[in-house]
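Encode chain A's predicted structure.
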Amino acid sequence: MYNDKKYLDFLEARKFVRSLKLEKTRDWYAYIDGKFPNLPPLPDTIPRYPKSIYQKRGWWGMYDFLGIVKIIKPRD
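Encoded structure for chain A:
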């Protein structure tokens, strides 16, 4: 299990992650696997699986964490 004392608080972590400008949740997983060499590496102070740490500390889901705007198409 994670030792959550070593991680940034949720808002600080989210600010860093949003600065990466990832477009999809799958981009996050590619990023943590090092598949975006043009981006800085994930700091040790941000968990690879953030829900497990931030779920009761402001977590609203990966879209919110990454800063992705989810567009809902209206029904006909």
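The radius of gyration is 13 Å.
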